[in-house]
Specification:
By secondary structure, the protein is an alpha/beta fold. Helix content is about 40%, strand content about 15%. It has a 7-stranded mixed β-sheet, with helices on both faces. Strands 9-12-11 form a 3-stranded antiparallel β-sheet, with helices on one face. A two-stranded parallel ribbon has the order 1-10. It starts with 6 loop residues before the first helix and ends with a helix. The relative contact order is 0.17.
Length: about 400
Amino acid sequence: MAHTHSARSRAIEPFHVMALLARANELQAAGHDVIHLEIGEPDFTTAAPIVAAGQAALAAGHTRYTAARGLPALREAIAGFYQQRYGVTIDPQRILITPGGSGALLLASSLLVDPGKHWLLADPGYPCNRHFLRLVEGGAQLVPVGPDVNYQLTADLVERHWDKDTVGALVASPANPTGTVLSRDQLASLSRATREHHGHLVVDEIYHGLTYGMDAASVLEVDDEAFVLNSFSKYFGMTGWRLGWLVAPPSAVADLEKLAQNLYISAPSMAQHAALACFQPETLSILEERRAEFARRRDFLLPALRELGFGIAVEPQGAFYLYADISAFGGDAFAFCRHFLETEHLAFTPGLDFGRHLAGHHVRFAYTQSLPRLEEAVQRIARGLRSWQG
């Protein structure tokens, strides 16, 4: 007799971009030159000093489990990084090393959300956030946000949408898909608003380091009780190594450690040893060069898209995305994306993946390709718009 799958698994939506990606790969296999602007993954491979540290760790036999909270030396290095970059002192005991930022999100949602309770999330936002909440039988209360609030939750919105089942708010700075950043003052007022309701503030700082012309403030500068999710995937360029971290208040650490032991035992040991090289001056100078390269790409693609008629009301200050309104061109975003994939072999992401608020009118471009590729992409967009409208 056939068993039906859980309601939980049915409620978690797939990434809609994956259907486009599968088609893009088919086109590529057939010999077409596809330009990929759809995936949130830097095009740079992991920096050489990190790879060398990983290889040395393997050669030295560092292939066993680490402690559930991660290598003490790595937790100390991260604490040192907070001191150096943000001027905040964090006890390394409060840092848990996780399998990617996803592991940190899994721990935080498992710890803080009971069945039927929910967090406030900005819509548009990163889809896995609401899916992790569904996984722990909680929910996401999606708050529609637009350019007027920089696509971010505000203290006022928290006030307005908080109800008897709300237990916290999750914000992202810089945010995916919009690239907007929360200032120190905005973080402080969000912290006050959640605290007044005896709720938790969880901040996704996964794109920290990838900001342009400014540095993002960490919530830990203004709130020692906040939960911070971070990752080695974006600024540090270690996507496939699956490594992230969670900074938690001291009172939460024992329960988080227990969850980590049960959910995944430990993060990958060779990745942790490799990550020790992330904080060395030679590595950081490579990463800063890459940051400058992303800034050049944004500064090329943003005006080029605006000139073609895409609506980008807010200049993104971080991450590597442009979230664009396609209302000027009519039609729905999924059909629009499919048109460009089929006719111009150019892949980008429909807004549908990031929530519900005006999702059908938006697309996301990831500027994770070289400038010459982006120049070629803009030519294809200009041509594709003519065939779309014609």
